[in-house]
Each structure stands twice: as structure tokens, then as C-alpha cells.
Amino acid sequence: MDSGGEPQSTAFSLRTFGGLELLDERGQAIPFSAKALVILAYLISTGRRTATRTEVAELLWGRGAPSTAFTNLRRLVLRIRSRQTELDAHFLAFSSREVEIRPSLLKCDVSLLATAEPQGSFDELKTLVDRLRLVFLGETDLRNPLFGRWVAQQRERQSAALEHALRTMASLAKTAEQRAVVQQAALHVFLTDSNDQIARKFLLQAYDVQGEVDHLRRTFERRNEMLASWMKEKRQSPPVKIAARAATVEAINPAGLVEPPTACLPRLALLPPNNYSREPAAAMIVTSLLEDITIGFCVLSSVQVLAPYSALQISRKTEDQLAMLEHHGLTYVLETRLSGVDEELSLFSQLVFLPTSEIVWAERLSLDGARFAQNRRDISGRLAFSVASEIERHRITRSNFDRNPTAYHRYLLGRQFFDRLTLPNLHRARKEMKAVLQESANFAPALSSLARTYSEEWLLTARGEADLLRSAETYALQAIETSSDMADGYRELGVAKLLQGALDESVETLQLAETLSPHYADVIADHADALAHCSRLDTACQTIERAIELNPISPDSYLWTAAGACYGLGRFEAALGYIDRMADASLADRLAAASWAMLGHRDKAHVFVTRVRQTHPEFDVDNWLSIVPIKEKWHKDIYREGLKKAGF
Fold first, then answer.
1. 580 and 628 co-located in one domain
2. What is the average per-residue pLDDT within 378-406?
3. Does one domain contain both 565 and 632?
4. C-alpha distances in angstroms, 540 versus 100, 298, 546, 558?
5. DSSP-assigned letters across all residues of 345-413
6. Minimal CA–CA distance to 515: which of 328, 288, 247?
7. Which of 89, 226, 365, 568 has the smallest C-beta neighbourhood within 10 Å, fewest atoms?
8. Which residues are the signal sequence here (predicted)?
9. 485: part of which helix (H) or strand (E)?
């Protein structure tokens, strides 16, 4: 059998879960034939060293036209040999009859599942959970029945392996970490097959509601102690000195707390109401209220909540809404419908468990202030099984309503003006938030929203008015002082620091905000933006992708941040890809021009240069770079190079 030579390096791995990629020793994807990767995955997952050429040809192209399949295979073999020679790594060898794999030259994430008899350990169970939280060959479809049947068989076999490991290890769990692994495994099996009684039994034990509430109460108490320490230090130091608090940020998730992997968590969407009443203003208020509750859910580590922007887009779909919900991996959906008029105005809500289409809970809620607050308590109780950790955070959100319903109502009215960022809307929002503070001086959400109006005005006017950023910082610090365990104040302080050029302080403050609300997509996106300005571009790309995952119908600001980070890394085509996904791509015309120029397409770059000059005829590259906060010189230089090449 032709080996093509011996490799000089074995530092390659094959990723099969969540996609199909060949990775180098740094974990970076490297080009390799997709069908060659399928051959590797086929041999490794089935625990075989060889397969016949006929078998491989049928797997890749089906049985419809054997002569065509063999011709295609011969061409594929030539490409594989050539590429393996370039890499000096010969994973596959070929004879006239067989294809052989060199398994010692390649690590693979499916290897554990190819063993005939699992060893039976909690490490193995955890590895299985980590693997199966992503789909085997999730992005690969060769569009032939043989391949489809093989992939389906492998996925069924993998699920059976996890269920077997769960049955073996569940009763042996002694420590908190071991019980957490069992909980994660049971949740995965249950969401795959909701009729699995073994998984249901272990899941009920693992998510014992009272125990979960007690655990969360202790978690919040410990977190509040850490935040109290943060506040004490702030009072003893200048307000802008945040760098020394990095240790506190790490301490918020104590070593004793074990959190499930993000991809294993149930996902929840709260859809804005369809308005069947004659009160459009009421529909707007309830929509804002649902957004506020959504942000409250974002503090949890036990549930993911779809960001309000994506929930709003899904709610507007009619024909393919279910497909969109399934596409985004949602587990629960709270559907709402507004009806009635005047004093009889009510909100009908039903919570749907999507894997089985089961209506978990449904009720018609009066919009009378006191009763509505009480019904929100009922919602948290109904969701206790999968979102028990919502209780404490929901209490914080609800308490604002209970203490002063008038202030909360005005706050919701003010929030609507952030939907479209114009100077008049910012001024209207500021007026409403100041009215809220007249009703309730310590209303933290209004304080953080006020801070946002000043930082957004600084961006829109682009006049560099320092007073606006000082106001943003002042209100953000007041929000933190008023409610130190809510993420919004830290978020606004981090944004103000970013615009002031205090990049390290901005990153550290936004890291704290993200720690407080680990699934709050807008906070994560702002954190990614700060990381990009701090020239930590790889981390920025990873962070903004997490925000996009939580808010998949992403606002333009997310995509702009992703495009900028990719540009700084020299990934110009990826940058243009993100820009193409923007609803208003003109916001990134300068970046598009620079990207095309760096790719050698001066003609395409010129189109964007012309468009920028029509809007900003005085634009000057050096002046712009002197204003934009970018930490590292090399990072500014790549912007300067691209913009100059484009013709600015």
C-alpha cells in the first residue's frame, strides 16, 4: 500500500462534533478535503483501520452510478496525496483495493466513542457530555442515503453510550462535581428523549428544586459579599481605579461552584405579544416589560435566554416560526397575547416546552399593577424545575415594580426610545429616566439607562465632548452604588471608560458585568468591543461569537465589532462577510473599503471611499486614528495601511 512517506509531525487532530475540521497543534483549522475528512471520521468512529475502495466510494457518492463514483474517488485520492505531501502528514494510505488510516498520527474527538467497552469513570462521563453537547458531523451533508444512514446510526450509538454511562455512574456520584456531571448527562439524555424514564429520574434528583434554591441562595450571598468588597475598595480609591479589582472578578465564581457547560443549558425565549387589543401603547409597554424580565434571566448560569432583539424578530415570523425556534436550539418559549381594553386589558401567556410541544403553563394575567407583580411570582414558580436560579434575580427586578409601579411604568416608556438611536430619541429617553428618578431616586435601571443616553450621544455627535462621558460615568457609578449586583451599571461604566480611552479599565469592568450576567448578550458584545479596542483580537472574536450565539439575529453593532476584530487579525474576507450580514452596512463603509484594499481590489474599495466622502467629506485617516481608542501601534498601523491603500 502506498504510504506517500512518513510524516515529520503528528500534531494534528480531527474535530467531528459541531462540524468537521482538521486542526493543527494550535487548534487552528487548516485546509483539507472535506470528503477526505469524512473518510477519516468513518474509519475512526467505526474503530476500523481499513475499508475497501467500493465501500468508501458508496459512502461518499452513493450507489447510483458506480463508474462515476470510482472516477470521483480516483480524483479525490490524487488530491489527498498531494495535500498530505504538502503537510508532510500521511493520515491515509491507498492501494488498488483499500483505504487505510494511520490512527497513531491523528487525535480525534470521536475516539472515545469508538471503543468497544467504556471504562466507566466520571472523567469519561464528563468527556461524553462535552462531546455530545455538539452534533456529530453537524455541518456535513453529502446528500446520499448511505451517508445519512451511517451518520444517524453513529449519533444513535453515541446517545446510547451516554445513556449507558449515565446508568453506570449516576448512583456512584458522591461529590458536588460528580453530581454536576450526572446532572449534565441526565439533562442531555432527557432533551434527546423526553420519554427516557432513567434520565427523568436522575434529572429530578439532580434538580431537586428546594436544594437548587438553597444552593442559589448561598451562591448569591457569596457573590454579594464579593461585590460588597468591591464597593468598599472603590470608596477607598479614586473612582476610575478598577484594575486592582481583577482578583474580585475571578472570585465571583468560587471554586466550589460547578456550572454546567453553556451548550448543555436549556434555552428560553420570551416572545413579545401579538396585540389583539385596541391599546398599541399597552403592547409596547408589555414588550418592554418582557425585555426587562429577559435581562433578569440573563444573570443565570442554569438557563440561556434568547436576547430580546432575536426574540422580537422571531415573534414577527408567522409561517416558519417553529423552524426558527428549533434552528436556534430553544427549549422553552413563553408565548404572549394582549387582549381587552381599558381596565379589562389582560395578557394571555403560555409556556411551551418545545421538544414535546407541551404547554407547561398557561394563564390570563390582569395588567392591574399588584396582580401583575404576583403573576410574575407565579411564572418563576412554574419554571422552577429548569430555571430555579431565576428566583433571586427575578425578585430584584420585581422589587423595582413593587416599590414604585409609577416609576417602573415610566421606565418602560423611556426604554422604547432606545429602539432607534437618534438624538431626539436619546433626549426623550433621558427626560423619561429623569422623571423616573424623581419618583424613585435609587431606581438602578433608570440610572444605568441615563448613563447610556450620554455615551450614545457622544458617539452620535462625534464632537468629543468630555462632559457627556463624565455624565455617563457619574450615572453608571450611581447605578452600581444603588444596586451593586446588577450588571447594567458596570456595563455602562465600562462603555464610558472605553470611550474615554481607559481601555484596560473598560475591559476589566465589562468582565465583571459579564460575570454577573453570563448570558446577557449585549454585555458580552460590549465586552468584545472593549477587547477589540484593547487589541486583544483573538479573544474579542471568541467573545463576540458568544454574543451572536445568544442573539443570533444580531444587531449591526455585534457584526461591526466582529468585522473590526477580523480585520485587525488580517482576516479581511471574514470581515467583509460580517459586514454583508449587517442590516445597514453603510455604518462600516470605511472598514469595507480598507478590507477590499488589503485584498487587492482597489476598484471595489473605491466604491466605499466615494460613499464615505459623500457623508464625511472632511474625513482624515490620521485625525480619525488619533481619536479612536486603540491600544497597540500595530493595530492602528493595519487600519492606516488599509485606509491609505483604499484611497483615503
1. yes
2. 46
3. yes
4. 41, 20, 10, 11
5. -EEEEEEEETTTTEEEEEEEEE--HHHHHHHHHHHHHHTHHHHTTHHHHHHHHHHHHHH-HHHHHHHHH
6. 247
7. 365
8. none
9. none
What range defines the domain where residue 37 resides?
13-109
**Residue 256 belongs to some domain of the structure:** no
Q: 133 and 51 in one domain?
A: no
Q: Could you give the CA distance from residue 42 to residue 291 in angstroms, rounded to a whole number?
A: 46
Eight-state DSSP code of residue 19: B
Whether 540 contacts 528, CB under 8 Å:
yes
- The pLDDT tens digits of the residues spanning 517-557 come to 766 788 889 999 999 999 999 999 999 998 887 777 788 88
Nearest CA among 383, 384, 400, 338 for reference residue 365: 338
Shared domain for 174 and 105, answered yes or no, is no
What does the buried/exposed string (b/e) look like for 133-155 if buried means 16 or more CB atoms within 10 Å of the residue's CB?
beebbeebebebeebeebbeebb
Task: Give the DSSP H/E element, type plus range, for residue 270.
Answer: strand 267-270
Q: What is the pTM of this model?
A: 0.52
- CATH number for 19: 1.10.10.10
How would residue 245 be classed by pLDDT, with cut points 50, 70 and 90?
very low
Q: Looking at the structure, do residues 87 and 152 belong to the same domain, yes or no?
A: no
In what side-by-side order are the strands of the sheet with 29-30? 29-30, 21-23, 13-15, 107-108
b/e 310-324 (16+ beta carbons within 10 angstroms → b): bbbebbeeeeeeeeb
**Inter-residue contact 110 to 17 (CB < 8 Å):** yes
- For cell 385596541, name the residue: 278
* Residue 627 in domain: yes
Which pairing describes strands 332-339 and 346-353: parallel, antiparallel, or unpaired?
A: antiparallel
- Do 79 and 128 belong to one domain? no
Q: What length does the chain have? A: 648
Looking at the structure of the chain, the number of domains it has is 3
